[in-house]
User: What shape does this take?
Amino acid sequence: MPVPNPATIQEIGADGWTLLVNTDTAGAMALNRTGALIWRLADGHRTTGEIVAAFRGQFPDAPDTVGDDVRELLSKLTDEGFIGEEIPIR
Assistant: This one.
């Protein structure tokens, strides 16, 4: 499950954009409203599939490729250290 890095600071602008700053690496990323929704859905309680389903629920008219788009952003957020993958304890 994608889980946010606790070292990430987010600032929501008046224009709807969200700025993420990774205090571990000093990296930053700006997300539009759509990207910010995906960021909020990656809360450590949803699988990638559940994030895609929740996104589709918000935007039922989204193109069929939206699942790939969501996965691509999650991958980029992971690569930049803003989220990680929670490993279940068995």
Q: What stands out?
A: The longest helix spans residues 66-79. The longest strand covers residues 8-12. The helical segments are 33-41, 48-58, 66-79.
